[in-house]
Amino acid sequence: MASSRGPRGLVTMVCLTCGAEQFFDKSVPSSIKCEKCGSTVFRQFATPTEPDEATISQLEEQARSMSYGDSSPQTSPDEVRDLGNS
To answer: What is the CB neighbour count within 10 angstroms for residue 48?
Structure first.
């Protein structure tokens, strides 16, 4: 995704501790600190803004087929009920 001008898209860094997101459209700093909890451990997700064959193929392979009303895979009815009580 990176070029001499930086990434051709949006890079989302998600904090593994609290789930807070930080977005970068140029370069990603070598060290990041979560603004919410202070953690320094992140997972990176790249969202391309310029389509090409490799990007389209990657997104198609990673996509999940899901329609409104579909149950979540490997989720029991008791787990779904528990979500409503939190």
So the answer is: 16
Per-residue pLDDT reduced to its tens digit, 23-39: 998 888 999 999 999 99
Alpha helices in the chain (DSSP H): 53-62, 77-84
Token pair, residue 29, equals 């700093």
Distance CA 44, CA 1 (A): 12
pTM over 0.70: no
Long-range contacts: 27-32, Cβ < 8 Å, 24+?
A: 27/2
CA–CA gap between residue 71 and residue 42 (Å, rounded):
29
